[in-house]
């Protein structure tokens, strides 16, 4: 097969962890997001093609080349192959959604749990991918749209012939309401942060949300909001994000300073009044990790530096869990290390860290010459995860 037209593996059938790579477009110098003056000055004189360290080779592989200044040393061009899909800098949110998120949502609508986590250096586009903006809605909004579209479509199919509750109308809004008498969608959203270098803690970001405590892998006190349609869901999330910890740094004008998790849960048969065990419901978790950062690059000091240490530690623990899972799967004699205990996020995501539930990772990277080190570290570290079952 022509490598340029390689097909994305069918995520629903594949047993492997979905590992996606998205390359952020180069933002113009001085545009928010690239604020380190040292790099801005240098790159102003370089032609655009010299600024690129990462290029799409095929739909599933990339070529990483050191910037010219580094090339004189020992480093050379490397190819990273086997991603579920590589998204080029001009890929749209819809394209990313279609290839990466939609199979997880379809699985979720069948009652299965799943998780998508965005992972990558600070400023590489994790938050943009997950939440997007008004003109480019992200994975969460697009997922809500798909959930409400598919559920109202299936309501139409299931309910019109039966004419439930004696309704004669074929008004789709009425049918849609009928559907949600039978099923409800709940959203919860929380962040894990570390204030002033103290112990990490979880905070509910929903209205009237409180501090949360974790018992085993369950958060006590996490509030769920019932969602009536996708716009309502989008509104709840946008309000919650106003409460999320963000700060300007040298690498991102609005850098996330916390790990943020959104959970969607559909509950069936609300009308029969039975209280079901929530543990059996399918939950779709979407995780926006705070971006690992190098001190030299961010120039963080004081509180920002303490936050950085927390962010880097969580990223490291997350990677150690996946590394251990991979080694254990390759050699079952090798025990699965209990790294998940070392951070709140991995404790919460334990089932995923132990390979018991389906997950997908999207690695986000910047392709500028000055991003070579960060991009190279991430690809070296994370590309083996594509072998995880
Ligand atoms: N695909 C994209 N298209 C256009 N702009 C993008 C894209 N990805 C990221 N950006 C822009 O780049 C900047 C940094 O992105 P974002 O805040 O999503 O990074 P991040 O990885 O979440 O960083 P951090 O870990 O510091 O929170 C933002 O201004 C964002 O709008």
TrEMBL record:
<keyword id="KW-0067">ATP-binding</keyword>
<keyword id="KW-0493">Microtubule</keyword>
<keyword id="KW-0547">Nucleotide-binding</keyword>
<dbReference type="Pfam" id="PF00225">
    <property type="entry name" value="Kinesin"/>
</dbReference>
<feature type="binding site">
    <location>
        <begin position="120"/>
        <end position="127"/>
    </location>
    <ligand>
        <name>ATP</name>
    </ligand>
</feature>
<dbReference type="InterPro" id="IPR027640">
    <property type="entry name" value="Kinesin-like_fam"/>
</dbReference>
<dbReference type="GO" id="GO:0005634">
    <property type="term" value="C:nucleus"/>
</dbReference>
<comment type="similarity">
    <text>Belongs to the TRAFAC class myosin-kinesin ATPase superfamily. Kinesin family.</text>
</comment>
<dbReference type="GO" id="GO:0008017">
    <property type="term" value="F:microtubule binding"/>
</dbReference>
<dbReference type="InterPro" id="IPR019821">
    <property type="entry name" value="Kinesin_motor_CS"/>
</dbReference>
<dbReference type="InterPro" id="IPR036961">
    <property type="entry name" value="Kinesin_motor_dom_sf"/>
</dbReference>
<keyword id="KW-0505">Motor protein</keyword>
<dbReference type="GO" id="GO:0005524">
    <property type="term" value="F:ATP binding"/>
</dbReference>
<protein>
    <recommendedName>
        <fullName>Kinesin-like protein</fullName>
    </recommendedName>
</protein>
<dbReference type="GO" id="GO:0005871">
    <property type="term" value="C:kinesin complex"/>
</dbReference>
<dbReference type="GO" id="GO:0007018">
    <property type="term" value="P:microtubule-based movement"/>
</dbReference>
<dbReference type="InterPro" id="IPR001752">
    <property type="entry name" value="Kinesin_motor_dom"/>
</dbReference>
<dbReference type="InterPro" id="IPR027417">
    <property type="entry name" value="P-loop_NTPase"/>
</dbReference>
<feature type="domain" description="Kinesin motor">
    <location>
        <begin position="16"/>
        <end position="388"/>
    </location>
</feature>
<dbReference type="GO" id="GO:0005874">
    <property type="term" value="C:microtubule"/>
</dbReference>
<dbReference type="GO" id="GO:0016887">
    <property type="term" value="F:ATP hydrolysis activity"/>
</dbReference>
<dbReference type="GO" id="GO:0003777">
    <property type="term" value="F:microtubule motor activity"/>
</dbReference>
């Amino acid at each position: 097969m022509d490598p340029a037209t390689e097909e994305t593996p069918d995520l629903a059938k594949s047993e492997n962890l979905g590992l996606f790579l998205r390359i952020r477009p180069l933002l113009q110098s001085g545009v928010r997001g690239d604020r380190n003056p040292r790099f801005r000055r240098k790159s102003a004189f370089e032609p655009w093609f010299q600024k690129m360290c990462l290029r799409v080779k095929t739909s599933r592989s990339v070529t990483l080349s050191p910037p010219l200044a580094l090339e004189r040393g020992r480093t050379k061009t490397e190819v990273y192959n086997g991603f579920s899909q590589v998204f080029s800098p001009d890929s749209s949110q819809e394209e990313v959604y279609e290839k990466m998120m939609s199979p997880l949502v379809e699985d979720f609508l069948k009652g299965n749990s799943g998780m998508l986590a965005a992972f990558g250096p600070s400023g590489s586009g994790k938050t943009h991918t997950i939440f997007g903006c008004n003109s480019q809605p992200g994975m969460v909004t697009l997922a809500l749209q798909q959930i409400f579209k598919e559920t109202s479509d299936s309501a139409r199919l299931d309910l019109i012939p039966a004419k439930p509750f004696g309704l004669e109308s074929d008004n789709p809004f009425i049918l849609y309401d009928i559907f949600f008498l039978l099923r409800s969608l709940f959203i919860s959203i929380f962040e894990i942060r570390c204030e002033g270098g103290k112990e990490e803690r979880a905070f509910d970001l929903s209205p009237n949300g409180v501090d949360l405590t974790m018992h085993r892998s369950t958060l006590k006190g996490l509030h769920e909001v019932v969602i009536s349609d996708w716009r309502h869901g989008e509104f709840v999330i946008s309000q919650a994000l106003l409460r999320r910890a963000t700060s300007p740094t040298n690498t991102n004008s609005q850098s996330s300073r916390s790990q943020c998790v959104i959970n969607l849960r559909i509950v069936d048969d609300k009308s029969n009044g039975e209280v079901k065990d929530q543990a059996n419901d399918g939950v779709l978790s979407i995780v926006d990790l705070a971006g690992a950062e190098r001190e030299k690059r961010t120039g963080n000091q004081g509180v920002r530096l303490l936050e950085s240490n927390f962010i880097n530690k969580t990223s490291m623990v997350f990677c150690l869990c996946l590394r251990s899972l991979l080694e254990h799967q390759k050699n079952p004699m090798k025990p699965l290390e209990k790294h998940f205990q070392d951070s709140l996020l991995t404790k919460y995501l334990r089932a995923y860290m132990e390979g018991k539930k389906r997950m997908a990772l999207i690695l986000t990277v910047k392709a500028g010459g000055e991003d070579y080190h960060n991009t190279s570290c991430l690809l070296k570290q994370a590309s083996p995860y594509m072998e995880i079952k």
